[in-house]
Design a protein that fits this description.
Number of helices: 7
Radius of gyration: 18 Å
Number of strands: 10
Structural class: alpha/beta
Strand content: 15-25%
Largest sheet: 10 strands, mixed
Length: 282
């Protein structure tokens, strides 16, 4: 792994898990991003009833995954993981309310990125369903990567390889993509990827937001203008590219799920053919 990777604005990645298949796919994305950002990774499980210590064997196997990816030799000791530049912690918390448990943990352990596994079109399984994911994302007010169980992830669980060929950025004047666009570029560079970035605007051409690009930028940018229902157009373009990642600016704590309240970001997340990264505007 190169030593001169550009820094991402991420020091701590939080991955809440309910040990479901959806969480397994989200886990490999959380681990891959933590590796590339040289960030700490916390895998958090909220247990409603049982003693949290009874669930340790269900947590994702960090060393086994890194060995499978060829980053550690087979049979490596536990202290081999920090040598890769990351610190990994597994935490089990007993709380009857998963939203409260996750947000309380974040209050004491701030993170710059949350990685959540979603269950396709109907939210999340077990306790990680829509009624949990949406309040967590709104309440946390930090970047959240939603990885759908039925979606095409950009990190391979088998070998850790990354495929970022097309990145879609739906954008409008409000909220502006001025924060989301640089983070999308930084994430791609961290993975040594040079995708085609598609800036999608749905609506009046005069409202297309301006995105300042570095003149030395090696990435390819294109602007696409569509009309019609916003969510439908986002999903159609994402499928047609096909997009490996959708990056959406949001309004942070005051309106994380978009101007249509509980619809734009939420519906994109539930129906997207690929992971969705939601980035609060501030």
């Amino acid at each position: 792994m190169p030593d001169d990777l550009p820094a991402l604005p991420i020091r701590h990645v939080l991955h809440p898990t309910d040990f479901s298949p959806a969480s397994e796919l989200a886990f490999v994305h959380a681990l891959a991003i933590a590796l590339r950002a040289r960030a700490a990774l916390t895998i958090l499980h909220i247990d409603r009833e049982a003693d949290p210590t009874t669930s340790w064997n269900e947590f994702p196997a960090i060393r086994a995954t890194l060995e499978k990816w060829g980053l550690l030799p087979h049979g490596s000791p536990r202290n081999a993981v920090p040598k890769l530049g990351i610190a990994v912690e597994k935490v089990a918390v007993r709380d009857t309310d998963p939203v409260h448990g996750i947000l309380a943990f974040l209050d004491q352990n701030p993170a710059q990125l949350i990685v959540l596994g979603t269950h396709g079109r109907d939210g999340m399984p077990r306790w990680l369903h829509a009624a949990v994911a949406e309040p967590v994302a709104r309440g946390a007010g930090v970047m959240t990567l939603f990885v759908g169980q039925g979606a095409r992830g950009f990190v391979s669980p088998d070998d850790g390889s990354v495929s970022l060929t097309h990145v879609l950025l739906p954008a409008d004047r409000e909220p502006t993509p001025k924060v989301a666009a640089p983070i999308a570029r930084g994430l791609a560079r961290a993975f040594d990827a040079f995708p085609r970035f598609t800036l999608l605007h749905v609506g009046d051409p005069k409202d297309i937001p301006a995105v300042r690009l570095d003149p030395t930028e090696e990435a390819v940018w294109e602007r696409v203008l569509r009309s019609g229902p916003v969510v439908d157009q986002i999903l159609q373009v994402a499928a047609a590219l096909p997009a490996d990642l959708i990056v959406m600016a949001t309004r942070g704590r005051s309106g994380f799920l978009g101007a249509l309240r509980g619809s734009t970001t939420e519906r994109v997340v539930r129906h997207a053919p690929c992971p969705t990264l939601a980035i609060p505007e501030e």
